[in-house]
């Protein structure tokens, strides 16, 4: 009988600790800002070293865009 | 990254006189070539004589593809006495899934028939690459590609 009581108490204590730990985790999660939740694990670098988050389009480095406007050809001959 | 003016291929002037094409309605295209290309040889006459076009990959299509097709105009230029060859909108290539590598020359030619060449521009002193997600935009200057004054 004593043994049964002991195991019942132990189980109760475990359940209490487990629930408290779960509540702590939940509280910790809701207090974090979005950036912390994302964490570094979501950040990846593509082969052009442009940082992006998984599942998002790469953030394009616009400085690598090329805009070229060649001057016109000389059609006529000045006489 | 010094850009060179559009430069005519010699046969272009001859072909105007012969009526080989129509500047107003002919289908003109733009294609890109590497530094290994002979695109700057003004004695060439047709697209098929050009070598070392930019590789078909990552957003670039051989012949320039649909992205290289110009909507050109042959209309009055700075004055009623001048006529201007121009195109709009600008041609834009976007590198997707990899780089569009080794770009140095842009060539404008007529895509129909013999694919006669019009002119080329050396876009840069050295070849360059368009990295993934980025664009190469080739716009006509404020005074067009060329003017007949």
Low-confidence segments of chain A, given as residue ranges, are none
Spell the H/E element sequence of chain A.
HHEEE
Globally, the shape of chain B reads globular
Tell me the span between the first and last alpha carbons of chain A: 121 Å
Topology:
The complex is a heterodimer of chains A (79) and B (149).
Chain A: H1 2-31, H2 34-38, E1 43-45, E2 51-53, E3 66-68
Antiparallel strand pairs in A: 1-2
Chain B: E1 7-8, H1 10-18, E2 28-33, E3 72-76, E4 83-87, E5 91-94, E6 100-103, E7 105-110, E8 117-122, E9 128-130, E10 135-138, E11 146-148
Summary?
The complex is a heterodimer of chains A (79) and B (149). With 79 residues, chain A is an alpha+beta fold.
Q: In words, what does this structure look like?
A:
The complex is a heterodimer of chains A (79) and B (149). Chain A has 79 residues and is an alpha+beta fold. In chain A, 44% of the residues lie in helices and 11% in strands. Chain A is built from two helices and three strands, in the order ααβββ. Chain A has a two-stranded antiparallel ribbon with strand order 1-2. In chain A, a hairpin with a 5-residue loop joins β1 and β2. The radius of gyration of chain A is 32 Å and the shape is rod-shaped. The model of chain A has no long low-confidence stretch (mean pLDDT 70). In chain B, strands 1-8-7-2 form a four-stranded antiparallel β-sheet. A three-stranded antiparallel β-sheet of chain B has the order 3-4-11, with no helix packed on it. The mean pLDDT of chain B is 93. Chain B starts with 6 loop residues before the first strand and ends with a strand. The radius of gyration of chain B is 15 Å and the shape is globular. Chain B is mainly beta and 149 residues long. Chains A and B meet through β3 of A and β1, β10 and β11 of B. β3 of chain A pairs parallel with β10 of chain B.
Based on the model shown, name its key terms.
heterodimer; A: 79 residues; alpha+beta; two-stranded antiparallel ribbon; 2 helices; rod-shaped; B: 149 residues; mainly beta; 1 helix; 6% helix
């Amino acid at each position: 009988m004593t043994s049964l009581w002991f195991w019942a108490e132990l189980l109760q204590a475990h359940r209490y600790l487990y629930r408290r730990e779960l509540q702590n985790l939940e509280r910790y999660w809701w207090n974090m800002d979005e950036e912390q939740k994302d964490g570094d694990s979501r950040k990846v670098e593509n082969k052009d070293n442009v940082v992006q988050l998984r599942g998002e389009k790469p953030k394009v480095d616009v400085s690598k865009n090329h805009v070229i406007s060649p001057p016109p050809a000389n059609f006529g001959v000045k006489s | 990254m010094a850009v060179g003016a559009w430069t005519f291929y010699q046969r272009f002037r001859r072909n105007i006189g012969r009526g080989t094409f129509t500047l107003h309605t002919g289908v003109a295209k733009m294609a890109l070539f590497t530094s290994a290309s002979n695109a700057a040889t003004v004695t060439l006459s047709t697209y098929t004589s050009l070598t070392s076009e930019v590789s078909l990959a990552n957003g670039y299509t051989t012949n320039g593809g649909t992205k290289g097709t110009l909507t050109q105009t042959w209309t009055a230029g700075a004055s009623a006495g001048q006529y201007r060859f121009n195109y709009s909108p600008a041609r834009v290539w976007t590198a997707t899934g990899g780089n569009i590598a080794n770009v140095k020359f842009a060539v404008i030619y007529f895509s129909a028939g013999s694919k006669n060449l019009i002119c080329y521009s050396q876009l840069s002193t050295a070849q360059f690459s368009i990295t993934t997600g980025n664009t190469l935009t080739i716009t006509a200057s404020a005074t067009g590609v060329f003017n007949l004054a």
